[in-house]
């Protein structure tokens, strides 16, 4: 728990969550699965350690991310997000909780997905396609670093996917097929928070939301900010901070896994509050193949527990959720 301000640590009202920690190098698979399952039933948030991504490389990814956000806005607007949701998202572009937010989120971002070349038969599908890249003369090594990180994070996601399958009483390789994680949408997003928040005025670093996909692997720079709300119906809602642990991912389940599991596994509401300090984070959103039909898993239904959600294609669901939360691209025309 580094980088916490004195005020935060002295604030008696600040609730801190304690989450289960899954060690991917632990030989005791049964124990890992039990601990993971408990976390998924309770709040869908847990730490993952010993995932095999080395800390120096992680620091390099954060350094490169900072370099990008430090560029003049004009330079960043050259790689404004395209229709495939890749590229730069300016401050206030996204609004995750319109009921409680007056403007959008006080953060800027950069979406990076798997590079799908023009001659690929899937090129025309939403979310597949090319990434815009900053000019390599301006940011040398940037693209290589991000592409390597994407590959590594995807490998870790597949490892976690095997434990999740076991926790759902499925075959360990259940999510490893082509329709699932074989050709996934999987999008990483560099984020830079300005540090601004004032909930009483409807100003949030990142509004309350649940993630859309299967799971999210979150790496942060250690600056406090992420909060979770285990019971969204409680009045008033109780928010708990999730502290960063150096070298660990904070992993949370998304809405697709909640749907797959018939509500058995939780996709929990979360948000980010700024504390005046700038903050950098990198969520890696794991969504399955574009064509994947997200429908109740065979182990999560019975005669007395019928499917609660209709089956929906991954890309249809994601398109809908992105539309609800992102500004129309046309608003940027005058600024480019
Ligand atoms: C998100 C998110 C948390 C963070 O981008 O979906 O919840 O700490 N981010 O940046
Ligand atoms: Ni989120």
UniProtKB/TrEMBL annotation:
Residue ranges constituting the Fe2OG dioxygenase domain according to the UniProt record: 184-288
Pfam families in UniProt: 2OG-FeII_Oxy, DIOX_N
Keyword ATP-binding: no
Superkingdom classification of source: Eukaryota
SUPFAM superfamilies: Clavaminate synthase-like
Signal peptide: none
InterPro entries, A to Z: DIOX_N, IPNS-like_FE2OG_OXY, IPNS-like_sf, Oxoglu/Fe-dep_dioxygenase_dom
One Gene Ontology MF term: metal ion binding
UniProtKB keywords: Iron, Metal-binding, Oxidoreductase
Assigned protein family: Belongs to the iron/ascorbate-dependent oxidoreductase family.
The protein's name: Fe2OG dioxygenase domain-containing protein
Organism of this sequence: Brassica carinata (Ethiopian mustard)
């Amino acid at each position: 728990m580094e980088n916490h301000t004195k005020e935060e640590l002295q604030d008696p009202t600040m609730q801190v969550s304690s989450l289960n920690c899954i060690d991917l190098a632990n030989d005791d698979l049964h124990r890992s699965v039990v601990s993971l399952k408990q976390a998924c039933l309770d709040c869908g948030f847990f730490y993952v350690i010993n995932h095999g991504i080395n800390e120096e490389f992680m620091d390099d990814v954060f350094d490169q991310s900072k370099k990008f956000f430090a560029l003049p806005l004009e330079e960043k607007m050259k790689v404004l997000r395209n229709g495939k949701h890749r590229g730069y998202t300016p401050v206030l572009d996204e609004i995750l909780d319109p009921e409680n937010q007056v403007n959008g989120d006080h953060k800027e971002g950069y979406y990076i997905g798997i590079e799908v070349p023009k001659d690929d038969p899937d090129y025309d599908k939403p979310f597949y396609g090319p990434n815009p890249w900053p000019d390599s003369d301006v940011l040398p090594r940037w693209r290589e670093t991000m592409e390597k990180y994407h590959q590594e994070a995807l490998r870790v996601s597949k490892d976690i996917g095997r434990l999740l399958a076991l926790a759902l009483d499925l075959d360990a390789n259940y999510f490893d097929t082509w329709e699932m994680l074989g050709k996934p949408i999987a999008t990483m997003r560099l984020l830079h928070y300005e540090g601004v928040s004032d909930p009483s005025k409807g100003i949030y670093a990142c509004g309350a939301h649940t993630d859309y996909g299967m799971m999210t692997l979150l790496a942060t720079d250690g600056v406090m900010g992420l909060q979770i709300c285990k019971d969204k119906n409680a009045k008033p809602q109780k928010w708990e901070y999730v502290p960063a642990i150096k070298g660990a991912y904070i992993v949370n389940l998304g809405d697709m896994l909640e749907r797959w599991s018939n509500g058995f596994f939780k996709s929990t509401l979360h948000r980010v509050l700024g504390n005046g300090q700038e903050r950098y984070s990198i969520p890696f959103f794991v969504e399955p193949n574009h064509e994947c039909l997200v429908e109740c898993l065979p182990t999560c239904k019975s005669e007395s527990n019928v499917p609660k959600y209709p089956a929906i294609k991954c890309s249809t669901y994601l398109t809908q959720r992105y539309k609800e939360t992102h500004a129309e691209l046309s608003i940027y025309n005058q600024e480019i």
